[in-house]
């Protein structure tokens, strides 16, 4: 199996949940508001109003709407990008949950 075929197969090994959640993207000390489009145990797709490049490291924070539940905070790496209008969709690989 080629590297590309294995990468594609591995992507399908994780269940993706479609969500539309507000996120904070933290990059180089700057916080940028975005939207999480989908989420899996290994990564997420995020829509952002700013351009990032493959390899950028971002901290992603999704706050919980419920006081009793803690939100999500993760260190991620940009693994792909796609321009959509004025925004950019980012494929983020989760490196570490906080």
From TrEMBL:
Record-level Gene Ontology MF annotations: cyclic-di-GMP binding
Tell me where on the tree of life, at the top rank, the source sits: Bacteria
Which Pfam families does its entry note?
A: PilZ
Q: Which SUPFAM superfamilies match?
A: PilZ domain-like
The PilZ domain extends over 10-97
For this protein, the record's InterPro entries field holds: PilZ_domain
For this entry, the protein name equals PilZ domain-containing protein
Question: What species is this protein from?
Answer: Pseudomonas lactis
Record lineage: Bacteria, Pseudomonadati, Pseudomonadota, Gammaproteobacteria, Pseudomonadales
């Amino acid at each position: 199996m080629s590297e590309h075929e294995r990468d594609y197969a591995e992507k399908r090994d994780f269940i993706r949940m479609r969500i539309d959640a507000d996120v904070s993207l933290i990059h180089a000390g700057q916080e940028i508001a975005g939207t999480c489009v989908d989420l899996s145990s290994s990564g997420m797709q995020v829509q952002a109003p700013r351009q990032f490049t493959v390899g950028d490291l971002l901290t992603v924070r999704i706050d919980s709407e419920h006081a009793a539940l803690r939100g999500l905070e993760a260190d991620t790496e940009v693994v792909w990008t796609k321009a959509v209008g004025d925004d950019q969709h980012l494929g983020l690989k989760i490196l570490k949950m906080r």
